[in-house]
Design a protein that fits this description.
The complex is a heterodimer of chains A (about 190) and B (about 450).
Chain A (H helix, E strand, L loop, with lengths): L2 H4 L4 H11 L3 H14 L6 E2 L1 H5 L2 H4 L4 H8 L7 E2 H8 L7 H4 L12 H12 L6 E2 L1 H12 L5 H15 L7 E2 H8 L13
Antiparallel strand pairs in A: 1-2, 3-4
Chain B lengths: L1 H38 L5 H27 L19 H12 L15 H13 L30 H40 L6 H21 L2 E6 L10 E4 L5 H7 L5 E5 L3 H13 L3 E3 L1 H4 L2 H13 L6 E3 L10 E2 L13 E9 L14 H9 L4 E7 L11 H16 L2 E2 L13 H24 L1
Parallel strand pairs in B: 1-8, 2-5, 2-7, 3-4, 3-5, 6-9
Antiparallel strand pairs in B: 7-8
Helix pairs in contact in B: 1-6, 5-6, 5-8
């Protein structure tokens, strides 16, 4: 018997994930087969090395930060639920979701949650502010060795100047929303099943 | 004493029966398999076998789907088609697109850096997590329909009695009848190869020796082909590689060698191994010049190149067979060709090999199974079915360097075999991707930021 047959998702689990993330049945099973193919240790969880084995991710300048986003605070393994929860941020917002019951908890792929995901790529220490240092770190990751420290510093200063409104020389989440809100739908990924 | 006398007739009967069945067995073997192999003819038994199997597989898949629907079970979807529809775009285009889509800012005022630029990298990264082009090439291709082998079935639950019985029958036939038959043939083939090539080695060099060596090699490879029940269709045989040329093909498993060498004579290239492989290699080289390297010599690229070019210059020597990918790929794509063989400057004869995975997956996942395990799996599959296309010869053109030439040949092979043409290195199966690729991305992005600065200072 193939080992995969025994690790097929149970119907109840799929329903729970569906409710939590909004992915369809077939999307969940497809992504589950992707999850298992990445899981080389076959223990039902992914480690950072499993992600780094994807060449296209390894050459992405922000690869490490993106991988980090999958792992909850201080943990080294992510299970399928966690995997799907993070991927849910990239699901496009559907029309029928806009009129959902406002009392229900905010869906993972709401505009605000998408922006929070992007914000957290910058804000490494999770203090809800992007400091000049944190901005410089991300810039350095994206440009490598091709731009000098001074130039990069002035780019960072200019960016903070434009976005900062309360004068504390860092960018808070609200200030980030104003800058990023218009572009955020770019990160939506259409899963074609 | 009495009891001994009683058992004798039964013993005799048993011995006679065994003797008869062995004789029948070997006669059948000889007539239907070995003799045709020697002369290169075929009775068409394998084609008939293949057609019958296909019908059975269709029925089996149908039953599984029906069974699953009846019981409301979920079917495991094979991870073969792309999950995301991606269009190829460049870094610069995409980032400009993001910035443009934002507001009505005109491009002249475009600042060097926008906080939204990370969205590009973010999306690229998550897309590659959901689906990437490379990692799926290093594991066996998953099938849409079931071929009665548990190893390729992910939905096996007790669907119906008939299906289970059929599967059980399949196991008995494969392991009880086909496997012993094939193992016998394999030993015969390899044994004959070693013995006969050693004998031929004693002959003086000349046309007689070459002729005999070719016949012996062909015969033994044909026996090995039958040992795997390989059903091969050769296309465009007028393009078969000639002396003084280099034959390149995509690599899926060690069986590729047997498949090509049973239809033509090649000089093999490789590292000398120990054990049984080593014995075979040493005896083969007595009959005709193959190119075997010691482990230490493999690292020295100049030495390798020199021996290869010396070989191709001698027109009496056979064409060289090389697999430029350097490792086994799962036959859904062709990965980067190493440029070494394309620097030598002789005619290249590309060959495309495509396996039909429905009868048995030929891909050797060397991190999952060793060689012996792999061969046993091959011999207990239904059959190995493949198509071989001999493509027209290619030479390096003016102004083309080795890498471009290699890519051109690779594209031709991929097109013919219906495989995806990838630029990624097959070495990624084991090793990490080189940092230079990340540095390229960083350079491209930096140009976007700094380029604007230069324009500013100019104006």
């Amino acid at each position: 018997m193939g080992s995969r047959a025994s690790t097929l998702l149970r119907e109840e689990e799929i329903e729970e994930i569906k409710k939590e993330t909004g992915f369809s049945h077939s999307q969940i099973t497809r992504l589950y087969s992707r999850f298992t193919s990445l899981d080389k240790g076959e223990n039902g969880t992914l480690s950072r090395e499993d992600f780094q084995r994807i060449p296209e991710l390894a050459i992405n300048p922000l690869g490490d930060r993106i991988i980090n986003a999958f792992f909850p605070e201080g943990e080294d393994q992510v299970n399928f639920r966690g995997f799907m929860r993070t991927l849910a941020h990239f699901r496009p917002i559907e029309d029928n979701e806009k009129n959902k019951d406002p009392i229900a908890s905010e869906p993972l792929n709401s505009r605000s949650n998408k922006l929070l995901f992007a914000f957290r790529l910058y804000d490494l220490d999770r203090d809800d502010k992007i400091s000049r240092d944190e901005l410089l770190q991300v810039l350095r990751m994206m440009v490598g060795v091709n731009i000098s420290d001074e130039q990069l510093g002035s780019i960072a200063d200019r960016t903070i100047q434009e976005a900062d409104q309360n004068g504390d020389n860092s960018i808070s989440f609200n200030e980030f929303i104003k800058v990023g809100n218009v572009y955020i739908l770019y990160i939506d990924i259409d899963i074609d099943i | 004493m009495d009891s001994l006398a009683n058992f004798n007739p039964f013993d005799n009967l048993l011995c006679i029966l065994l003797g008869i069945s062995f004789t029948v067995w070997f006669t059948l073997l000889l007539v239907f398999i070995i003799v045709p192999a020697i002369f290169g003819v075929s009775f068409g038994i394998r084609q008939l076998y293949m057609k019958t199997l296909l019908k059975i597989f269709e029925w089996a898949t149908h039953r599984i789907e029906r069974g699953a629907k009846d019981n409301n079970h979920l079917l495991y979807k094979p991870y073969s088609n792309a999950i995301i529809a991606k269009e190829p775009t460049s870094l610069e285009e995409e980032i400009k697109e993001i910035r443009r889509s934002g507001s009505n800012r005109d491009l002249d005022h475009a600042s060097e850096f926008e906080m939204s630029d990370i969205f590009y990298f973010c999306r690229q990264g998550v897309e590659s997590i959901m689906d990437d082009e490379v990692t799926k090439r290093f594991s066996a291709e998953e099938l849409e329909s079931w071929n009665l082998l548990t190893r390729s079935n992910y939905n096996f639950q007790h669907i119906s009695l008939r299906l289970t019985v059929l599967w059980g029958l399949g196991v008995v036939i494969r392991y009880g009848f086909l496997l012993p038959l094939r193992v016998t043939l394999a030993f015969t083939g390899v044994g004959l190869l070693v013995v006969l090539t050693s004998i031929i080695g004693f002959l003086p060099n000349g046309r007689m020796k070459n002729f005999l060596s070719e016949q012996v090699h062909l015969m033994c490879y044909r026996i090995c082909v039958r040992a795997l029940t390989a059903i091969i269709t050769y296309h465009d045989s007028e393009n078969k590689p000639k002396n003084g040329g280099i034959c390149v093909a995509n690599h899926t498993s060690p069986i590729d060698v047997i498949i090509l060498a049973s239809d033509g004579c090649y000089a093999m290239v490789g590292q000398i191994h120990g054990g049984l492989m080593g014995v075979i290699q040493k005896s083969m080289v007595k009959a005709c010049p193959h190119i075997w390297f010691e482990r230490s010599e493999v690292k020295d690229r100049h030495l390798v190149a020199k021996r290869l070019s010396d070989h191709v210059e001698d027109k009496t020597k056979l064409p060289i067979l090389i697999f430029p990918e350097g490792t086994c790929i799962n036959n859904t794509s062709v990965m980067m060709f190493k440029k070494g063989s394309f620097e030598i400057g002789s005619t290249v004869y590309p060959v495309a090999i495509k396996y039909d995975p429905r009868f048995g997956d030929a891909f050797w996942n060397s991190s999952q199974f060793g060689m012996v395990n792999y061969l046993l799996r091959m011999m207990s599959s239904w059959a190995i079915v493949c198509s071989v296309w001999y493509l027209p010869p290619m030479t390096r053109e003016e102004g083309e360097d080795a890498v471009q030439f290699a890519n051109r040949v690779k594209a031709a092979i991929a097109r013919q075999g219906g495989l995806v043409d990838l630029l990624w290195d097959g070495g990624l199966k084991r090793g990490k991707v080189k940092d230079t690729f990340k540095e390229e991305q960083q350079k491209l992005y930096s140009k976007m930021l700094v380029g604007t600065q230069e324009d500013r200072s100019r104006s």
